[in-house]
Amino acid sequence: MTLKLGTVTTIVISSPEVAKQVLHKYDQAFANRTVPDSVRALDHHKLSIAWLAPTSAQWRNLRKTSATMVFSSKQLDSTHMLRHRKVQELLNFVEQSCKKDEALDTGEAALTTVLNSISNTFFSMDLAHYRASDKLQEFKELIWGIMEEAGKPNVVDFFPIFRVLDPQGRRARMT
């Protein structure tokens, strides 16, 4: 079944057999994803591995670089102690909070741990701290805002003729 919303044609596959056939035989034809107009702010869709077309040379190069330089077994083994130290910091923070009978925001503590693990891997420094949460809260709000803007329906995605106008202001807010 096909569904046409503005200029976007969506194919609905309702049987597992047909889905398997499509994904196995025609995977390249269906590999490209629709890029929401809001993601086009600051040309992010041209630079991000998440939004580039998987069939492009740039996407393949970024994927290869990620696989060999960031996620290879050798690289992951070399950062094992760093990840272990960050988890230990999390456990120490939880223990201190329990001893002081303080309320613990587990989501924020986990975000701090993950963010510091990633930032230490790439920049050799912590970007967040467990107690001083102003910067972490600002970062969290920024990421949440980006996810919300990219995920909301936008009339421009269905009727690209309105792209210049940005009638809902999604691209402006994303910028």
From TrEMBL:
The molecule here is called Uncharacterized protein
